[in-house]
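Possible regression after last week's pipeline update?

I re-ran a chain I had predicted before the update to compare outputs. Posting the input and the new output here so someone can diff against the archived version. Not blocking, just want to make sure nothing changed silently.
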Amino acid sequence: MKIRFLKGNNMKYNLLKLINKIFNKKNNKIESLPPTQRKKTISYSEPIEIDFKNILKFNMSDTVRNGKNNNNQILLQEILAKSKKEKDFKVSIGNQNVHINLESKIPFILITPSHLENGQALVMESNNLETNNIELLLKQALNTGRELNDILNGSNPILIPILPSESPTAPYYQQLSRECFENGKRPDLDILETIDKAKEIMYKEYNTKVNDKIFLNGYSTSGCFAQRFSLIHPELIDTACIGGASGSIPIPNTDLDYPLGIKNYEELFGKSFNIEEYKKIKFDYYVGSLECEIKSLTRTDEDGNLAPMHDMSYFNRSVPPDVGRVQRKNLGQDMFERAEKIVNILKNMGINISHRIIPNRTHNNKEAIELMKNNPNYKDIKGIYDEQRQIISSSFRNMLQRKNNMKKENNEILKD
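New output (post-update):
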């Protein structure tokens, strides 16, 4: 499960320019030595590889694919790797630093304000893409960091672990599927190591200790990751803000196996489930009302109809078929019906959870365009992007407010 190197064909790019573009910064001068180009042949049977010497170099095309979306203005074309000596470095951009570590078991990107304070919350979101395409992996990780950084106004450190992508038949690491933990494998411990390394960077470089608990964000695939990482390590999570994953909300009881329950939890993780820590997490779920309108081309429900693309209960790589079938039998085939029942069960268990359904919203803008094109009854619908930003920002502010209230209460107790 190690991604120590990234390999590419004819690779050459300037990462510094890439980061500048992604973070929309101007007039920031970053100087570095010119890269030396060499050609390589992509082989996905070998580890993904990136070589470094002092800093990773990229030359980026300025081609604009979609002028309406800044994210799409960046097209990665090649990646050049120079040396095997340095795979851990920092780039300063304006009043922020971007730390890139590609030598750990789970490579990661850490974005930090130049000024950190003790007790700040670390924000984490895993990469949301399963691919061996180097361009897409790095682009998405940086764009995910940029988006969160923009939503939070650059206030808090942001960690993006880049989980491995091996093949369509390999364990679904991006969603922490059950297969990831078979034969004693523990990718969650590698993620813990990544979090610890991020905290170590902040302590060494800024003399700062962040809060022990993190703000865990996720949408779609990274939303499933957030569900499951919270289940495995509830003691580390303060708030989990999760969108586009309402079909696979877990219930921490022994009716179902992981990842929808905890029947085989101890077998997989070698510990008992800590329900008291799980109750301390604030879960903020959200989903578009048109989430189920786009169907899978290969998955079917119990009646032989095409299943919703984004309902992971029907996706065998995410949820084992037997576990999904039992879940749907007990709680309903329809995702929204099932989610409503699950949320009520969790609330009765004392879990702090909210579930918001946003009218006339699809999983993303592309699907909204597809629906309107194929069905004239759909008008003025769009993806969830704008509401998503507001929900993440609100969830984060509410977490800070709870912490401030708790601090005031503790101070009052000390005064008495």
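Follow-up from reviewer: compared with the archived run. Residues 151 and 390 are 8 Å apart (CA to CA). Marking as no regression found.
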